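hiii, so i know i said id send this last week but things got crazy w the move. better late than never?? heres the sequnce for the chain we talked about at the cafe, plus the structure i predicted for it. fair warning i was half asleep when i ran it
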Amino acid sequence: MINFKSLIAEKIAKEVELDKNEIEGYIEVPPNEDMGDYAFPCFKLAKTLRKAPPAIAEELKGKLSVDGNIDKIEIAGGYLNFYVNKEVLTKTVLEEISEKKEKYGADNSGEGKTVIVEYSSPNIAKPFHIGHLRTTIIGAALYKIYKFMGYNTVGINHLGDYGTQFGKLIEGYKRWSSEYNIDENPIEELMKIYIRINDLCKEDESVLEACRENFRLLEEGDKYCTELWERFRDVSLQEFNRIYDLLGVKFDSLKGEASYADSWGEVVDILEKSGKLTESDGAKIVDLEDVGKGVCMITKSNGSTIYATRDLAAIRYRAKTYDFDKCLYVVAYEQALHFRQIFEVTKYLDIPKKCQKGLEHVQYGMVRLTTGKMSTREGNVVKVEDLLRESIARVKEVIDEKDPDMENKDEEAKKIGIGAVIFNSLCTTIIKDQVFDWNTVLNFTGETGPYIQYIYVRTKSVLEKAGYVPSFDEVKFDKLQDKQSLSVIKNLYKFEEILKNVIDKNEPSILARYLIDLAGSYSNFYNENKIIDEDKDIQNARVYLSYAVGTVLKTGAGLLGLEMPNRM
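okay and structure toks below
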């Protein structure tokens, strides 16, 4: 596909002493279409050329020539505005979609590179609540987008299956197992035990010490503690997998913290040999104060490991197993210091520099209730399965009212209801906190997942009404030069660049906002143009444009995790 920005940068680079790639980075898309398709800010050359930007623009315009790809070049203050040939643009976009179809937008930029995405990572024996939903949805989207762009992508669910909380749960089970039916409703009952033992720990320090001792025994392989832990893990995974199936989320690996138990000692040994491991009140630490990152604890005073030890062991394993170029941790911003510390400590381990540099913390905002912060310990959480089933039920009610004879209504309600939840989590910048409100999450009007699905269904109905999709050779590009058609074409052209931006910033909301813009531009086109027309050339062009929009909407939505319904 023709890269107009690159062509413009090449033209300018021939006339000035700047690298083409640097110039391309300066080129902007004007806020107003009347100001052209691309703009180069000449003030970027002012220091080098020692001239005022308007004078530079005037001089450059005199040297640059228009051609078959660029129709005209105009000056606006210190900017050079470029207008691309609209028929060439239309042909470029539609021909690429004709050739690549559902692969349109993909490139080979990730070829030969490996990216690990760690996401979801719920704690065993605790409910899968909406606090886990964002990491699951964000991580799954990044996983799919990297894979789509040619990367060898590995999705890891780093289960929270180790830690002091299991010592607490084991202690609670020892005391009260006869009072709770874990076989009947495992997660609910385990949560009740956890809340109860946690409350008791607050009242009695000796109970807390017993819990710590349980965890120490678990680390040492005690038979009773290990069998209990395995049971808690198995029943938890059954519940988690039910939720993952609803969301359409999959993983390549379910290696939790416990999987690296055999190599925790190696981490400690290597750090000791490096001379960086010191003792503090019985605990072993790495002092990072000299680089402004505080103190990273490696083992507690009783010899137990903590998150840092287990994460460092996991990084070593991943570096040796996958030799990754990137390893993304999709974890809330509350853990920012933790990741800054362990990334720093990897410098003292036997980990290749390439892998050290590829470690990235993809931070996202917290999910809070309208009543405040959630807490498993306090028992005030909203479970993801309840949210998803409520969303599906509300969609089903609407379908029953408006289209009672719809085929496969349960399946369509599932696609729309879950799509609404997923898109709600991705439509704003991920670093922002979200306040969970049922009315907002399940609002199906406005800039939502169901809106994108609705526009997709509209493109599908156009094709059904026409009864065919014309071949690319039947499309006359001059029939798509009206304002609404060109707005759609320009949005379609952006798709590959949008996906690259998502990867550059690890920000799926960029794709979510793009899909809203594309859907909106098609809606305007649909409302302003008669698609089924007496003029066969006009009909062919407009039907094909509808096909192109539907293809990109389905691909883009699928990368975010939304399935497209057949009817709405």
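btw The CA atoms of residues 484 and 526 lie 9 Å apart. thought thatd interest u
miss u guys!!
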